[in-house]
Amino acid sequence: MGITASAVIALSSLGFVTPASAAYAATETTLTFEDGDTLGADAVGNNGGPDAVGSFEGATTTIENVPAGGGTGKGLHLKKEGQPWAGATLMDVTTSNIRITAENLSAITFDYYSPDTVDSPVMVKLENASVNIEFPLTASPGWNSMEFDFSTKGTWSKDIEYTRVSIFPNFGAATTVTNTGQVYVIDNFKVNVAASNEPEALAADPLFVSFEDGDTIGAGAVGDNSGSDATGTFSGATTTIVDVPAGGGSGKGLQIAKAGDPWSGVTVVDVTTSEIKITGAGKSTITLDYYSPDNVDSPLMLKLEGAGGANAIEFAKTASPGWNSMSYDFSTQGSWSAANEYTKLTIFPNFPNGTVTNTGQLYVVDNLSINGGLPAPSAAAAVLTFEDGDSLGALAVGNADNAKATGSFEGASSSIAAAPSGCEVGNSLHIVKQGADWAGVTLLDVSSSNLHITAAGKSTITLDYYSPDSVVSPVMLKIEGAGGSNPIEYAMMAVPGWQTLSFDFSTQGAWSASNTYTRLAIFPNFPNPTVSNSGQVYVIDNVSVNGGVVVGDCTQEEEEEPEVIAPVRTKAPAISGTAKVGKVLTASSATFSGTEPTISYRWYVCAKAAKVSATQASSLKCKAIAGNAGKYKKVKVTKAHVGKFLRVLATATNSAGTAKVYSATSKKIVK
Question: Of the four listed, 237, 351, 395, 422, which is most buried by Cβ atoms within 10 Å?
């Protein structure tokens, strides 16, 4: 005869040992909240009476379609009202033979929609009859992919059989919004998942070091590399950032005074604590501009190595006196491998086997390109006047083909000739409209440069346009990125004769200042032509992009340059990830108001915890993490960080000023 539940209770109360139950199994389980998901359906309604799952403390739950951006199908909608700790119990397996979390299956993951306009907390609570663990994380507005790895919580144990899990939106940490019935959404709720916190393989992301103002990586090469600094000079060399010598373009470069040991030099880049590596498959070449003050040829050596000096490769070439464009293809070096993670780059002027005596001579390095890195794209002003000497305008003549990206297509033809009367004298581009309805001319293609067409504050393209039609007819401009990416077509109506047309692409919903548009085309009498195309000649002149200034001809008066507004912080970065050695912490993007600020990031390790702030108190004893600056919003946690806290500084800069904000610190780093 089996022992009944009441008998077990009775025996326990008398001090007898009851038979041990079999260990519960940790089976991966997903609540999809779709039709047929009985476990998900149980989360609807209150958890009062015999129901162990459902909402509590004033919250209500329903299953409805998920908001846009979160895929398709249904999700659990949780309306937050009542107590601050109102929420819902999603699973209770007390009466089953399964458990929630186990060794190597310690994570709970789900898709989470927050209706809040600012970051807000969400807490998951894991418990059984005798113990509980509360685990809060921060969610951004909109959809989030949440992962709660309970193995990172000190009170969690793989030996405890947890049987109940609950969720508390906008609770568990400092709340940022008032609960007024806002609706949070949970979908694809999974338990007993292997945590995805293994360090990721480093990627060979493009990196360009210009040594200009705001280049934090380049600035790290100044000074010596003693103490906690991984970059800088060694063995007697010294570095400063100076205006480059004549013949090397404009701007600044890194000046290296060669003194001390023959092998003195500078470590320019160290990305050991970041998520990238130096060189990789198809990205084996490092290039730089190099100035030698020597009056004879002299050597220049680059050295690549991994963490702790692993897989070191030394690669020397000869430089001539004056400026040189140096290119080092490490795939030609037998010991190089695309699979190795090289994280440190060092430069040794006049070494090995120096050909001159080192007496403090000044070498200069500039425009260091790693992994195919290019200068940041710029929206330089340009005007196509089609006058003599306008090399860009001349490229619009003739057919566009594989050899030439600009010119006419689909039956149209283009030439430069005198402008029709009604405009000032000079030349213009004449387009004969024949062939397909969509025949036209590609006016600009800057794909092979570091320029782009339109940008924040420079979203308008203007041109003088002559229509030979006797009625109103359409004209369309099209901009797109490399390979036809992010195309935007913008049409307006033109009257007969001359007019100045203005196309403000910021009024087009698909346009974004963050996209790089590199190609501009024009389509006369398209779309929806109002006249038949019979070889009529349309004329364009003074095509202005990125604020190019047009003088004379058919243009309106020039507009004043817009005021540059200094950046002001609008949202601080927030840190996510597991504060544990070997893991990667990620900072969300900071946001600033103002005119086109450039935003950079730098990580710090601190002795004490801190909240979001505009300055960093000396009492926190924070030190910058060497080599982890610029665009890097991720950092790898190392043993040196154990017992401390990490935080990130976001700096926004434009010509009108600078603004800074420090994130709140991470949790204390553990082994």
Answer: 237
